[in-house]
Amino acid sequence: MSxxxxxxxxxxxxxxxxxxISHAARRAGIVGDITGSSSTAATRAKAEELGxxxxxYETAAEAVKDADLIILCTPIGVYGKIAEDIRPFLKPGAxxxxxxxxxxxxxxxxxxxxxxxxxxxxxxxxxxxxxSGPESGFAELFDGRWCILTPEPDADRMAxxxxxxxxxxxxxxxxxxxxxxxxxxxxxxxxVPHLIAFNIVNTAAHLERVxxxxxxxxxxxxxxxxxxxxxxxxxxxxDVFLNNKDAVLEMLGRFSEDLVVLQRAIRFGxxxxxxxxxxxxxxxxxxxxxxxxxxxxxxxxxxxASDKQS
Amino acid sequence: MSxxxxxxxxxxxxxxxxxxISHAARRAGIVGDITGSSSTAATRAKAEELGxxxxxYETAAEAVKDADLIILCTPIGVYGKIAEDIRPFLKPGAxxxxxxxxxxxxxxxxxxxxxxxxxxxxxxxxxxxxxSGPESGFAELFDGRWCILTPEPDADRMAxxxxxxxxxxxxxxxxxxxxxxxxxxxxxxxxVPHLIAFNIVNTAAHLERVxxxxxxxxxxxxxxxxxxxxxxxxxxxxDVFLNNKDAVLEMLGRFSEDLVVLQRAIRFGxxxxxxxxxxxxxxxxxxxxxxxxxxxxxxxxxxxASDKQS
Lengths: 310, 310
Prior knowledge:
2 copies of one chain form a homodimer. Chain A is α/β, with parallel strands linked by helices.
């Protein structure tokens, strides 16, 4: 064990990420007390019942009192309001960070509310599942994954070093970049993939000539993979797209342009172009497996038989 | 064990599906001898070494001699040529079927070559992984999955019943439909999802402002899910798109139309529309899990830690 890094950590929002941070920080033995807040009574009750926090408050302002590390884990749309609310209660020397999927808008919304003597460094662990809520977290979520930190140029170096150390002890590798570059990178590796997944699931659900029942029955042909991503939290994703508009629209433009090339190749029977482009895509998969960012097991290691019998 | 249904089965093409049929048929104890053919010497050697077939021939014509059940398991682009080649060697009373991902074009390519007294019934097991080759098959691949058969209106009822029984004993559930309806259903549940996956992987690989290395490192944000599907066999998929042009272009048109709605909602900050459409997509996932067509384990049950260490 590495010893206590933060005597008190406050988790503002206790869903998949908040609860996983609690589990992983406990596993590492690096925090003393953990408090939390949620505006939802059921979440507060569940978080206390599971021991994720010693006390779950209704407001963020109550939760941050005496905290040395404050992590915002709510949908990013309410970050500005939370920052405003907690401002008077932040302890001098405390570190405020977050886990939001967009960074430029988050810095814009939070930074102006941070008082002198408190350190703000925005962050984003690239990890998650399609499930949400305090019972969905687990200690291994961040193991081997990357956490991106986007400190402002004048960020306190010691605070940054401590936050890097914290994420490393949760199991992550840490990368530093600007908020703007983060938003471009995640636009293509996360935001546009989610948008496309949401979209095809809805397209399939509204066809007249193919029934919903058929879509579900025959989903093992590839469609079901998209439905996992499309089952992610709608409010969280709404806020991502509202706050990373420029990068998402840019990447989406490229995606649509490239799709037209494939569409024309299909229309005109250009098998050579199809085979070449499909072949190139294979190499990227190999790179991801070599980098330890996905399993090499066929079909993600899904159990081949139906789970409904078990 | 159910007893031998077919004294000799010939697998024309011994890749993921052909080898899995061999494993599953052996597990069920329903075939006597299994022969096979592949134009690739390495595949023939591997198939014999693994015991998938008693003898692997270079040509389909050699493999079908004395076979009671012949299953075409090559990319569908060569089906017409194979049907022409095997025609003189088909045993009276034999059943010819296939596993191709498109059905109308397959019926068009094969049916004219089937002599009187031989039964042709096209089929498609909705199962697979991103891997290919004779060593990638396994007996459980079809367990709990659907197999669609698309018999012509005058198909022999006894042959159809035997083929249904065969697929049931391999672990599948069987559904009957017309080739044209099959191609529409699979257009949306399989072909368009694959096209989109191939496309986004290539879009990501050709960005100027985000490096390939970054795409790979941060792929756990959603992108990596698409790369699995995009790692599927390029030749097989080329042939699918060349042979299901109309349905794919129709479904792709709907997809692009729907994507424009999301794109506009993002551009104009319409969070209500985004949240509503994202929420609807969740319900489809639940349906798929309830139908036993995917696992309920978070993240497909992927092992959370990186596999590279193991």
